[in-house]
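Researcher: Next sequence.
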Amino acid sequence: MRGWIPPLPLACGVLSFGLSWIVLFALARDGATGGSLLSLAWVHLVALAWITTIALSILLHAIPGFLDVDWEDAGAKIARACTPVFALCALALALGFFIGSIALLEISGTLVLASLMIYVVAIASPLLTAMRGARSVRPIARAFAGTLALLLLTAVLGTGFAYALGGHGPSSLLVGVPQSHALLGIGGWLTLLVFGVSARTLGPIAGARSRALALHIGSSSAVLVGTLVAACGAGARLPIVLAIGSALLVLGTLAYAADIFDVIRRATVPHRPPQILMLCAGTWAILAAAGLFATALGSDLATAAVYAALIGWIGSAVLAHLHHIGIRVLLTNVRGEDDETRPESVLDARLTWATLALYQVAALAGATALATRSSTLLEIAAIAGFCSFVLLIANASGAIGRARRLPIVLGTVG
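Model: Next structure:
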C-alpha cells in the first residue's frame, strides 16, 4: 500500500500529546507518585494513546515502503480501519486509570489488545511477502515482526494486569509484571521501533546516512537482549539480572547515540530542528538507560527513568519526525501525493524553534522533578510541555494555509 499515513489516528495521537500535559499537571498538584492510577493514566496517554497510535499509523506506510512491496489486499483496509479504533480504545484506557474505573480498564484493555491483534494479523501480509523476497529486505521484515511481537506481549501483560486489579486474575500479576510490562513496551517495542525507523528516516531528515551498519546492528541487538534480560529480572524480582539487562541497554543506547551524532554532524539538509531533536533524543536515551541501571543498583530513579525514556528519548524522536514526516502528511493531503514541497517551506521557523526549546525544558524539568520529588518543577514541566503542544498545533495549522498558497512543486526531495 503506497498511500500516505491516515490523518485521523495521527490527529488523535497529537491530541493525546496535549492531554498528557494536563494530566501531568494534575499529577504535580496531587502529589501522586509512580504506580498510582493517576500516574498510570499519564504513562498510557503518552506511551499508548500518543506514541503507539502515531507509530501504528506511520507503519501502514513505512512497512510496505521500507520493504518495497505492494500492499493492496483486504488486510491493508483492515489495518487502516484498526488504527482509529485502537486510538479511541487507548484514550479510554487512559481515562479508566484517570477516573479509577476498573471496569473501564478491563473493557478498554481487552479492546486495545483485540484491535492490536487484528492489526498485526492484517499487516503480516507485506512482512511475509518480504521474508520470502529479496535477501536485502528479509532482515528488515524480521525486525518489524519482532518489534510488533514485543508490542503484543506488552499488551497481553498489560491486559492481564488490568484484570488482576479488578480481582479477575491472579494477584501475582500485580507484582513484577508492571515493571516487565513497562520495560518491554518502552525498551522493546518503542525503542527498537525508533531504532529501525530512524535508520531510514535520518536520510531525509539529515541528508546523510549511517556509515556504520555494524554499529546499528550492535546497538539494536544489545537493546533487544538487554530489554528481555531486564524484563525477566524485574518480573522475577532479581536485581542482579535487572542490572545486567540495564547495562546492556546502556551500551546499546551509547552505540545508537554515537551513530546518530555522526549522521547529524554530516547533515546537509538546512532544516535543523528535527536534527537537533534527534540529537536530544539520543542523549535522553542514554540518560534513561543509565537511570534504569542506577535503579537496579538501589537508587530511587525508576519514575525519572520512565519519564526520561518516554518524554526525553521517544518523545523527542517523535517530535522530530512530526516536524518532517508529519508535515509531509499535511502537504500531501492538501497538495496531492505527487507534491514534493519541503516541510520548512511551510513551517514558521520561530514557532518550530520555540516548540523545540519548550519541549526540552519540559523533558529536563520533569525528569529532574521526579528524581528530586519536586512538585513545583513538575508543574513547570507540564506548563512548558503544554505550551510546546500549542505551538506545534499553531505551526501545523499555519503550514496548511501556506501550503494552499504555494505553487505545486514536483521533483525529488530527500
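Model: The chain has twelve helices and no strands. Residues 307 and 367 are 6 Å apart (CA to CA).
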